[in-house]
Amino acid sequence: MAKFIVYHTLPTPTPIPAAEPVGKATKKYSTPEAYWVGAWIQLDEQGHATKICCEWDAKDVESIQRVLDKVLLEIPGFPVDGPYPLMKVDSEVYR
């Protein structure tokens, strides 16, 4: 499977508990063709989420988009930028 990345720039800083329904919905709708691996969350000074960067394993962009479409039906208006192809590089490669 290929790797992809999806960004979510939140319009206002959001407490982590308020963002959890998105993660639960994404996990619920993930499929063998598009599987949400995990996320990095950029925090502000108060510890609220400002940007979420999600890593996916998927057959293709369309497979991820089908999952995201279901998530957006459950959580309308959630910002989505992507999916984009991703190449992950460990620092150990350059040791």
Would you give an account of this structure?
This protein is of the alpha+beta class and about 100 residues long. The chain has one domain (about 1-90): Alpha-Beta Plaits (2-Layer Sandwich), CATH 3.30.70.3090. It has two helices and four strands. Strands 2-3-1-4 form a four-stranded antiparallel sheet. A hairpin with a 5-residue loop joins strand 2 (about 35-45) and strand 3 (about 50-60). Helix 1 (about 15-30) crosses helix 2. The longest helix has 14 residues, at about 15-30. About 20% of the residues are buried.
Which features does this protein show?
single chain; 95 residues; alpha+beta; Alpha-Beta Plaits; four-stranded antiparallel β-sheet; 2 helices; 40% strand
Short description:
The chain has helices at 16-29, 61-74, and strands spanning 2-14, 34-43, 49-58, 81-85. It is α+β, with helices and mostly antiparallel strands and 95 residues long. The protein has a single domain, classed as 2-Layer Sandwich (Alpha-Beta Plaits).
The counted number of beta strands is 4
Q: Tell me the quaternary state.
A: single chain
Largest sheet strand order: 2-3-1-4
- Secondary-structure element order, as H and E? EHEEHE
Helix percent reads 25-40%
Structural class: alpha+beta
Main beta-sheet strand count, sense and barrel state: 4 strands, antiparallel
Average pLDDT for all residues:
95
Proportion of beta-strand residues: 35-45%
Q: Gap between N and C termini, in Å?
A: 27 Å
